[in-house]
Structure formats: C-alpha cells, structure tokens
Amino acid sequence: MPVCLMRDGARLTYAENGAGPPVLLVHGWAAHGGFFEDLGARLAAHHRVIVPTLRAHPGSDRGTLPLSIETLGEDLVTLIETLGLEELVVLGWSMGAMALWAAAPRLGALTSGLIVEDMSPRLVNDASWRFGLTGYSAADVAETLKEIAADWPAYVSRFAPRMFARETVERHVSWSIEEMSKADPAAMAALWSSMAAQDFRAALARMSLPTLAVHGAQSQVYPDGATAFIAHTAPNAEQVVISGAGHVPHLEKPEAFFEHVAAFAQKVRRPDLVRGGVS
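The chain above was modelled as a monomer; its predicted structure follows.
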C-alpha cells in the first residue's frame, strides 16, 4: 500500500518494498510510480526499493508550491532525508532524471550512484544544441501548452506511442495512454514549461557521482547523443544502449534493463554494504 509524506500540506505518496541497500526509482512526466512495478519487484529481492509518485501526478497532491523541476527535486530531498536513506542509488526516467539533477547539490554523500534513463540535460534544441527532444525547439513550447490545454487525452494519445520502439508499442501503449490520461493537464503544462526552461549541461561537468546513462536504441524521443553527452561530460559516467527499446527501456526490455541496474548498483556500493555478494 502507498505510504504518504506530507510537505506544504500536500500528500505525496510512495511505495516501499524489499530490504537491503536502498534504491529510489523516479518516474517521468505524466506517469506515476506504478510504471516501475515490474522493475521494483525485481530489485526488491535484494534491495529496499522506494518508488515515489511525484507531486501533482496521479496519486499525489499538487500542493501550494510552484510546480517546477526545482520543487520536485526538493520533494525528493525531503523524502530521502525523512527516510534516513544513505548509500542510495537513484534512478530517474525522463523528467525524473531532471528532478534528481535539481536535487543533486543537496544530496551529497547520501547517494552512491545515479542512473539516467533516456533523458537529455536540455529539452529544447537550437543552433548550438541538437540532442534535446527530437525535432523540438523553444518555439514549439507554446504550441505544446496549447495542445495540452485544448484536449489532454488527445495529446496523450498522440504522444504516448512515440515513447516506445515500433516493435514494443503494441504491448505497452494502451495501458500507458490510460494511465497518463489521468494526470491533471494544468499541472502537466506547468511542469512541461519548467522542463523546457532547464539546462543541466554545465552542471553535469560538476557532478562527480558515478552515473549510468541508459538509452533505448530505438528511442523516438531523444537521440543517442543525449545520453552520450552525459557520459562524456559528467566526470564519472558511462553510457549503455539497449537494443530494441525506445524511451521506456525498463518496460520494453525489462530483463536487460534490470541487469544493467543491478550490476551498476553493486559496483557503486561500499564493500561493507554488499551482502552475500549481491547488492
């Protein structure tokens, strides 16, 4: 059953399962913690797995704070500190990675590793940056917000199929559309605006945290260059490309994705925290 954390009067839910070294799984825009049900169950065999549903997403309240990447990052810091988590491996899928980047300066020694799942440090493209959302520029933001406000379910129905590789879309798209349609469009518009304003490229160069950047080889959302940039810019980062996956490798290729996550988690743990040879 979901557990609640209260912040600024908002009920922010999270699920917790398993025991052992902790792992935090942070979902993407317009999704919720349930998108990690399979991965969380796999990891819970050897880990304490915490899966929040972010503010203003289905299952958590909006609250009174501004809906921004910075606020989501602050929520995650509050959750981590409240639960007393240390030597934590954090995983951010899509917007979840931005929330973790925003939180990174305050997390310090509490985290031992970061996994970025198919995300770019900058959403919009321009003459100097071509690894943002595919074919998307600052001029497109206003039209996106207009489409969200006009008919949110229709927008989700157009957007969701692009999240998956062509060979996996039929298995996942109907459920994803149903779940993402439950999100509040006004809240999603505010968070989209905040995402479009972010630029973590310079900050990556200062992030010494061990980082694994995972890209779906058939992603229609971000090009390979997005995670390659992370791997080349962050001082202690590497890239993994998963064949046959799109923007959601943890759903599309669950076995391969789990193996990469489990191996990375074991590699970045202190030896005294690895139990029985399995992290």
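The radius of gyration is 17 Å.
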